Amino acid sequence: PAAGIDEDPQTGVGAGALAIYSQCFKITDRDIFSIEQGFEMGMPGIIKVLIKRDCIMIGGHATVFGGRNID
User: Fold this and answer.
1) Rounded to whole angstroms, how far apart are CA atoms 12 and 42?
2) Are 49 and 16 in contact (CB under 8 A)?
3) How many CB atoms lie within 10 A of CB 53?
4) What is the rounded distance in angstroms from the CA atom of residue 42 to the CA atom of residue 53?
5) 60, 38 in Cβ contact below 8 A?
6) Are 50 and 56 in contact (CB under 8 A)?
7) Percent helix, strand and coil across the chain, each to the nearest 5
8) How far is C-alpha 46 from the chain's CA centre?
């Protein structure tokens, strides 16, 4: 935001990638993650990530704080 570029307060793609990266590079052997994002922006949220053998499940709660139409 400081550079004039909008940011998402929470992003499931980033949370899932972080969880997989952490497992692949043996940073952790956990398969359940709670990732906190958006606190510095005043729009806090927690994303839950569950890694199973061949899939990733990402969930959480979101609040709509803006909208935009794209034509």
Assistant:
1) 18
2) yes
3) 5
4) 35
5) no
6) yes
7) 20, 30, 55
8) 8
The rounded distance, in Å, linking the Cα atoms of 11 and 18 is 11
Tokens 């952490």 belong to which residue? Answer: 22
Nearest to 44 by CA among 57, 66, 61: 61
pLDDT for 24-35, tens place per residue? 899 998 899 999
- Which of 24, 26, 27, 9 is closest to 56 using CA atoms? 24
- Joined tokens for residue 69: 């139409």
**Tokens 């940011």 sit on residue:** 7
**Encoded tokens for 64:** 């709509």
Place of tokens 């990266």: 21
Global pTM? 0.71
Take residue 3 and report the two structure tokens written for it: 């550079």
Q: Is 49 a residue whose pLDDT tops 90?
A: yes
